Amino acid sequence: MSCVIMLYCLFYSIDELQFMSENTNITQESKKRILYIDLIRAYAILMMVQGHVIDLTLSPIFRDSSYILYTIWNFLRGTTAPIFFFSSGTIFSYLFLRAQGQGNETERFKKSLKRGLLLVFIGYLLQFKLEAWFALPPNWVEYPYVFAVNVLHSIGAGMIVLASVLYLLKKMPHRVSLTLMLILGTGVFLLWPDLEKSQFIDQLAVPLKSYIVRTPGGFFPLIPWIGFMFFGAGLGVLLHFKDTIYRNYIFILTSFTVGFILHIFSGDLLELSYNLTGWDNLHYLLYNNFLFFRLGHVFIFVGIFSLISFADQHIPKLVFTIGRNTLLIYIIHVFLVYNTGFTHGFATKFVRSLEPLNAVMLAVGIELVIVFAIWLLEKMNKKYGKTIIKLK
């Protein structure tokens, strides 16, 4: 029965951020803005797949910073999750605001809640273990990883939070919405240390605790990762109210400038702020500086993809198709790479045992299989009028 439910979710899965097909009466510029975001998402999901495969299979003897290629790969891999969360917030807020402009904000809000819950449900289903869930009470002490929070859980919960915020702001000027998104993103980052050190959090049951701090098997708790979604939502607000902002050279230059400032000076700025205020949170962030540091890389990539977008007519349509189907790709890659309650991942046969070339070849092979599957399903949808498999 569980396998049937999993397959149903796989083939019926509604891409958590893709609403293009719901309304064909949109402007050409609107389509271009969505393609711009899909370009970022395609990069993020493909980087996620190869990063998981190589990290799982690469032999420890090659995990050495003295290898320049490993250092570059490891650095770029660290940008994947921030970009993915950021772009998720961007496309979600952009399309939510577009629906609001058409007077459909209440319907969009309800759909967003359902889609957020669907993502959370699929996230748990991918980690499903019978003896953990059906014990009385559910056994999260012996199987904490089954109840841990990862990408799908956080993005699903983040969608619910973002939808609620955007719905409350529906009558506010866009400048207010943009400012609030930046404040919320910064606030999450700055207050995260308080939650990390909270004794109250330690007393919570694992399923709740996992949304606030990392627990065994969980790598992306809602806090602080929703901060990247808030910053991304800010870009979504800009894209909605400023038609060609992503191709504006001032915007591109600002993205690069902010990105490099955070990359080079975020530690110095945190230290200066701590010396001025004495706030312990700033001291904690200074010595755990991945949030603002990685946010800088996100802004750099926003600038890079803005430049790439000028050549969008020369980019294969398959790239944008990949960006529109991140949920499906994520699920397929979990089946192929990891052990789940339903499958044994192919890549687990080579855990930390491959040389770099073999690990890369395996990652490329798995990505080609996934891309071919997406291409084939898209062809089937077009041929049969999207009655066979729903990707959207």
Describe this structure in words.
This protein is mostly helical. It is built from 16 helices and no strands. Helix 2 packs parallel to helix 15, helix 2 packs antiparallel against helix 16 (356-383) and helix 15 (326-337) packs across helix 16 (356-383). It starts with a helix and ends in a 9-residue tail after the last helix. 41% of the residues are buried. The model is unreliable at 1-25 and 387-392 (pLDDT under 50).
Question: What would you say about this model in short?
Answer:
The protein is mainly α. It is 70% helix and 0% strand. The chain is globular, with a radius of gyration of 21 Å.
Please describe the biggest sheet, giving its number of strands, its sense, and whether it closes into a barrel: none
Structural class: mainly alpha
Please bin the fraction of helical residues: 55-70%
Question: Total strand count, please?
Answer: 0
Choose one word for the global shape: globular
* Overall average residue pLDDT: 88
- Output the number of helix runs: 16
Task: Estimate what percentage of residues fall within beta strands.
Answer: under 5%
What is the string of helix and strand elements?
HHHHHHHHHHHHHHHH
Stretches where pLDDT falls below 50 for ≥5 residues?
A: 1-25, 387-392
